[in-house]
Design a protein that fits this description.
Helix content is 49%, strand content 17%. By secondary structure, it is an alpha/beta fold. It has one domain: P-loop containing nucleotide triphosphate hydrolases (Rossmann fold, 3-Layer(aba) Sandwich). Cytidine-5'-monophosphate binds at residues 12, 34-35, 38-39, 103-104, 107, 133-136, 184, 188.
Length: 229
Amino acid sequence: MKKLTIAIDGHASTGKSSIAKEIAIKYGYIYINSGSMYRAVTLFAIENKLLELLNDNIDLFIEKLKDISINFRFNQNNLISEIFLNNRNVEKEIGSLEVSNYVSKVAAIPEIRKEMVKLQRNIDRRIGVVMDGRDIGSVVFPNADIKLFLTASDTVRANRRFEEMINNGLSVSYDDILNNIRKRDKLDSSRSNSPLIIEKDAVVIDNSNMSIDEQIKQIKQLIDRKIAN
Ligand code: C5P
Protein backbone atom coordinates (compact mmCIF):
# COMPACT_ATOMS: atom_id res chain seq x y z
CA MET A 1 0.00 0.00 0.00
CA LYS A 2 1.23 3.49 -0.84
CA LYS A 3 2.74 5.28 2.19
CA LEU A 4 1.96 8.97 2.34
CA THR A 5 3.59 12.08 3.72
CA ILE A 6 0.94 14.14 5.46
CA ALA A 7 1.59 17.75 6.47
CA ILE A 8 -0.68 19.30 9.10
CA ASP A 9 -0.20 23.02 9.63
CA GLY A 10 -2.38 25.57 11.31
CA HIS A 11 -2.97 28.05 14.08
CA ALA A 12 -1.93 27.47 17.70
CA SER A 13 -3.98 25.00 19.75
CA THR A 14 -6.17 23.77 16.91
CA GLY A 15 -5.74 20.14 17.97
CA LYS A 16 -3.19 19.38 15.27
CA SER A 17 -1.22 16.97 17.42
CA SER A 18 -4.25 14.97 18.61
CA ILE A 19 -5.44 14.57 15.03
CA ALA A 20 -1.97 13.79 13.70
CA LYS A 21 -1.38 11.19 16.39
CA GLU A 22 -4.65 9.42 15.72
CA ILE A 23 -4.10 9.36 11.97
CA ALA A 24 -0.56 8.03 12.45
CA ILE A 25 -1.76 5.22 14.69
CA LYS A 26 -4.57 4.31 12.28
CA TYR A 27 -2.25 4.00 9.29
CA GLY A 28 0.88 2.82 11.12
CA TYR A 29 2.78 5.96 10.15
CA ILE A 30 5.43 7.84 12.11
CA TYR A 31 4.10 10.92 13.88
CA ILE A 32 6.36 13.88 14.48
CA ASN A 33 5.29 17.00 16.34
CA SER A 34 7.66 19.63 14.96
CA GLY A 35 6.44 22.23 17.47
CA SER A 36 7.89 20.10 20.25
CA MET A 37 11.35 20.62 18.73
CA TYR A 38 11.07 24.42 18.91
CA ARG A 39 9.63 23.99 22.40
CA ALA A 40 12.60 21.83 23.49
CA VAL A 41 15.06 24.49 22.28
CA THR A 42 13.07 27.09 24.21
CA LEU A 43 13.06 24.93 27.34
CA PHE A 44 16.84 24.64 27.11
CA ALA A 45 17.10 28.44 26.80
CA ILE A 46 14.88 28.96 29.86
CA GLU A 47 16.71 26.38 31.97
CA ASN A 48 20.08 27.81 31.07
CA LYS A 49 19.02 31.44 31.54
CA LEU A 50 19.70 32.38 27.94
CA LEU A 51 16.49 34.27 27.22
CA GLU A 52 17.93 37.73 27.79
CA LEU A 53 20.35 37.06 24.95
CA LEU A 54 17.34 37.04 22.63
CA ASN A 55 17.17 40.82 23.01
CA ASP A 56 20.81 41.80 22.97
CA ASN A 57 22.99 39.02 21.54
CA ILE A 58 21.30 36.62 19.15
CA ASP A 59 24.67 35.38 17.87
CA LEU A 60 25.70 34.23 21.35
CA PHE A 61 22.23 32.74 21.89
CA ILE A 62 22.67 30.62 18.75
CA GLU A 63 26.22 29.70 19.74
CA LYS A 64 25.02 28.41 23.13
CA LEU A 65 22.48 26.14 21.45
CA LYS A 66 24.98 24.62 19.07
CA ASP A 67 25.63 21.41 20.94
CA ILE A 68 22.19 20.46 22.17
CA SER A 69 20.75 17.19 21.01
CA ILE A 70 17.10 16.74 20.13
CA ASN A 71 15.61 13.43 19.11
CA PHE A 72 12.48 11.32 19.30
CA ARG A 73 12.06 7.88 20.86
CA PHE A 74 9.01 5.76 20.28
CA ASN A 75 7.09 4.92 23.45
CA GLN A 76 5.42 1.51 23.08
CA ASN A 77 2.93 2.28 25.85
CA ASN A 78 1.28 5.38 24.45
CA LEU A 79 2.35 4.80 20.82
CA ILE A 80 3.91 8.23 20.41
CA SER A 81 7.36 9.44 19.56
CA GLU A 82 8.44 11.38 22.62
CA ILE A 83 10.95 14.17 22.50
CA PHE A 84 14.30 13.99 24.25
CA LEU A 85 16.48 17.01 24.95
CA ASN A 86 20.07 15.98 25.69
CA ASN A 87 18.81 12.45 26.41
CA ARG A 88 16.11 13.62 28.86
CA ASN A 89 12.44 13.05 28.15
CA VAL A 90 10.95 16.57 28.17
CA GLU A 91 7.52 15.71 26.77
CA LYS A 92 5.77 17.17 29.84
CA GLU A 93 7.93 20.24 30.50
CA ILE A 94 7.61 21.61 26.97
CA GLY A 95 3.86 22.07 27.42
CA SER A 96 4.19 24.77 30.08
CA LEU A 97 2.81 28.26 29.54
CA GLU A 98 6.30 29.66 30.16
CA VAL A 99 7.65 27.71 27.18
CA SER A 100 4.59 28.76 25.13
CA ASN A 101 5.30 32.39 25.95
CA TYR A 102 8.79 32.37 24.43
CA VAL A 103 8.69 29.69 21.78
CA SER A 104 7.52 31.85 18.87
CA LYS A 105 10.35 34.28 19.43
CA VAL A 106 12.89 31.45 19.42
CA ALA A 107 11.22 29.82 16.40
CA ALA A 108 11.54 33.02 14.38
CA ILE A 109 15.36 32.79 14.37
CA PRO A 110 16.43 31.60 10.88
CA GLU A 111 19.51 29.67 12.08
CA ILE A 112 17.39 27.67 14.53
CA ARG A 113 14.77 26.94 11.87
CA LYS A 114 17.47 25.73 9.51
CA GLU A 115 18.69 23.14 12.03
CA MET A 116 15.18 21.97 12.92
CA VAL A 117 14.14 21.62 9.28
CA LYS A 118 17.28 19.54 8.67
CA LEU A 119 16.28 17.16 11.50
CA GLN A 120 12.68 17.01 10.26
CA ARG A 121 13.77 16.10 6.73
CA ASN A 122 16.04 13.36 8.08
CA ILE A 123 13.04 11.29 9.05
CA ASP A 124 12.65 8.09 7.07
CA ARG A 125 9.42 8.64 5.13
CA ARG A 126 9.21 5.16 3.64
CA ILE A 127 6.74 3.90 6.23
CA GLY A 128 4.58 7.03 6.04
CA VAL A 129 4.82 10.23 8.06
CA VAL A 130 2.38 12.62 9.65
CA MET A 131 4.08 15.82 10.76
CA ASP A 132 2.37 18.82 12.29
CA GLY A 133 3.61 22.38 12.68
CA ARG A 134 3.55 25.72 10.89
CA ASP A 135 5.74 25.30 7.82
CA ILE A 136 5.46 21.59 7.06
CA GLY A 137 3.51 21.91 3.80
CA SER A 138 5.30 25.10 2.74
CA VAL A 139 8.95 24.46 3.65
CA VAL A 140 9.70 21.06 5.18
CA PHE A 141 7.75 18.83 2.76
CA PRO A 142 6.46 21.03 -0.09
CA ASN A 143 5.75 17.82 -2.03
CA ALA A 144 3.64 16.27 0.74
CA ASP A 145 0.88 13.99 -0.56
CA ILE A 146 -1.70 15.69 1.63
CA LYS A 147 -1.58 19.17 3.14
CA LEU A 148 -4.04 20.19 5.81
CA PHE A 149 -4.51 23.57 7.43
CA LEU A 150 -6.36 23.53 10.75
CA THR A 151 -7.97 26.60 12.23
CA ALA A 152 -10.71 27.56 14.72
CA SER A 153 -11.86 30.69 16.51
CA ASP A 154 -9.34 31.84 19.09
CA THR A 155 -11.82 31.72 21.99
CA VAL A 156 -12.82 28.13 21.18
CA ARG A 157 -9.14 27.20 21.09
CA ALA A 158 -8.39 28.98 24.38
CA ASN A 159 -11.30 27.22 26.05
CA ARG A 160 -10.12 23.80 24.89
CA ARG A 161 -6.55 24.44 25.99
CA PHE A 162 -7.70 25.87 29.33
CA GLU A 163 -9.77 22.77 30.09
CA GLU A 164 -6.95 20.48 29.04
CA MET A 165 -4.43 22.22 31.31
CA ILE A 166 -6.82 22.35 34.27
CA ASN A 167 -7.57 18.64 33.79
CA ASN A 168 -3.83 18.02 33.88
CA GLY A 169 -3.68 19.70 37.27
CA LEU A 170 -1.99 22.90 36.07
CA SER A 171 -2.98 26.24 37.50
CA VAL A 172 -3.48 28.65 34.59
CA SER A 173 -5.77 31.53 33.73
CA TYR A 174 -8.05 31.53 30.71
CA ASP A 175 -6.98 35.09 29.80
CA ASP A 176 -3.29 34.16 29.84
CA ILE A 177 -3.98 31.28 27.49
CA LEU A 178 -6.08 33.38 25.11
CA ASN A 179 -3.40 36.09 25.04
CA ASN A 180 -0.70 33.51 24.38
CA ILE A 181 -2.65 31.98 21.49
CA ARG A 182 -3.24 35.41 19.92
CA LYS A 183 0.36 36.47 20.36
CA ARG A 184 1.74 33.26 18.87
CA ASP A 185 -0.60 33.34 15.87
CA LYS A 186 0.49 36.91 15.17
CA LEU A 187 4.22 36.20 15.51
CA ASP A 188 4.04 32.92 13.57
CA SER A 189 2.11 34.48 10.69
CA SER A 190 4.12 37.68 10.41
CA ARG A 191 7.73 36.47 10.75
CA SER A 192 9.85 36.87 7.65
CA ASN A 193 11.31 33.34 7.70
CA SER A 194 8.82 30.51 6.96
CA PRO A 195 5.67 32.28 8.14
CA LEU A 196 2.47 30.34 8.74
CA ILE A 197 0.57 30.52 5.45
CA ILE A 198 -2.19 28.55 3.78
CA GLU A 199 -0.67 26.67 0.87
CA LYS A 200 -2.68 26.73 -2.37
CA ASP A 201 -3.02 22.95 -2.35
CA ALA A 202 -3.97 22.67 1.33
CA VAL A 203 -7.36 21.52 2.57
CA VAL A 204 -8.55 23.98 5.20
CA ILE A 205 -10.49 22.58 8.14
CA ASP A 206 -12.15 25.04 10.52
CA ASN A 207 -12.85 22.84 13.52
CA SER A 208 -14.54 25.46 15.73
CA ASN A 209 -17.70 23.36 15.68
CA MET A 210 -16.30 19.96 14.80
CA SER A 211 -15.49 16.97 16.98
CA ILE A 212 -12.21 15.10 16.64
CA ASP A 213 -14.13 12.14 15.18
CA GLU A 214 -15.67 14.31 12.47
CA GLN A 215 -12.27 15.65 11.52
CA ILE A 216 -10.71 12.19 11.47
CA LYS A 217 -13.51 10.97 9.21
CA GLN A 218 -12.94 13.79 6.73
CA ILE A 219 -9.16 13.32 6.76
CA LYS A 220 -9.44 9.53 6.39
CA GLN A 221 -11.50 10.04 3.25
CA LEU A 222 -8.77 12.25 1.79
CA ILE A 223 -6.07 9.72 2.67
CA ASP A 224 -7.96 6.67 1.39
CA ARG A 225 -8.71 8.47 -1.88
CA LYS A 226 -5.05 9.37 -2.26
CA ILE A 227 -3.90 5.81 -1.53
CA ALA A 228 -6.42 4.38 -4.00
CA ASN A 229 -5.16 6.67 -6.78
O1 C5P B 1 2.75 23.22 17.56
P1 C5P B 1 3.02 24.06 18.77
O2 C5P B 1 1.92 25.04 19.06
O3 C5P B 1 3.42 23.29 19.96
O4 C5P B 1 4.30 24.93 18.36
C1 C5P B 1 4.88 25.84 19.25
C2 C5P B 1 5.50 27.00 18.48
O5 C5P B 1 6.61 26.51 17.72
C3 C5P B 1 4.60 27.69 17.47
O6 C5P B 1 3.80 28.70 18.06
C4 C5P B 1 5.62 28.27 16.50
O7 C5P B 1 6.16 29.48 16.99
C5 C5P B 1 6.73 27.24 16.51
N1 C5P B 1 6.67 26.32 15.38
C6 C5P B 1 7.20 26.73 14.17
N2 C5P B 1 7.26 25.87 13.13
C7 C5P B 1 6.80 24.63 13.24
C8 C5P B 1 6.22 24.19 14.44
C9 C5P B 1 6.17 25.07 15.50
O8 C5P B 1 7.62 27.87 14.06
N3 C5P B 1 6.91 23.80 12.19
